[in-house]
Amino acid sequence: MSTMEETVRGLKYDSAGLIPAVITDAETDEVLMVAYMNEQSLLETIRSKKTHFWSRSRQKYWMKGESSGHTQDVQDVFIDCDMDCLVITVTQHGAACHEGFRSCFFRRLTADGQWETIAKRLFDPEKVYKKS
């Protein structure tokens, strides 16, 4: 086992073997998305310099951009003091959000308790993710 594998194995994963990863833009620090990684996806992210995750809803390993082409080039990987949460800085190519926005955090809570869309959609998800 390599030192990198030992380091990744030593992180604190939840009972499902997952660790949350906050993905931020390396230049602006904008939070782009939050997803989960297991040991395999974190090791592949480090190896390939492209983000890979574990989908809890689909129970599937996936690379960001495999369907849309909107990939993320990894710049740095950080761990918090409890070693149970990652922050990964990336160069984002296209949109990070599957709904077509640059960031998954495109809605803001207004004073009257409504969610307001505060960003422009970069692509139409119906066209990008259409099933053949």
Structural description of this entry:
By secondary structure, the chain is α+β, with helices and mostly antiparallel strands. The chain has a single domain (3-128), classed as Phosphoribosyl-AMP cyclohydrolase (Ubiquitin-like (UB roll)). Helices cover 16% and strands 33% of the residues. The chain has 3 helices and 8 strands; from the N terminus they run H-E-E-H-E-E-E-E-E-E-H. The chain has helices at 3-9, 39-48, 125-128; strands spanning 19-25, 31-37, 52-55, 60-63, 72-79, 86-92, 107-109, 115-117. The radius of gyration is 16 Å and the shape is globular.
Structure summarized in a few sentences:
The protein has helices at residues 3-9, 39-48, 125-128; strands spanning 19-25, 31-37, 52-55, 60-63, 72-79, 86-92, 107-109, 115-117. It has 132 residues and is of the alpha+beta class.
Overall mean pLDDT: 95
Order of helices and strands: HEEHEEEEEEH
Oligomer: single chain
Count every beta strand, where a strand is a DSSP E run of 2 or more residues.
Answer: 8
Structural class: alpha+beta
The main pleated sheet reads as: 4 strands, mixed
Task: Output the CATH homologous superfamily.
Answer: Phosphoribosyl-AMP cyclohydrolase
Number of domains: 1
For the record, the CATH architecture stands as Roll
Shape by Cα distribution = globular
Rg from Cα: 16 Å
Helix content: 10-25%
Distance between the termini: 41 Å
Q: Ranges with pLDDT <50 over ≥5 residues?
A: none
| Percentage beta strand | 25-35%
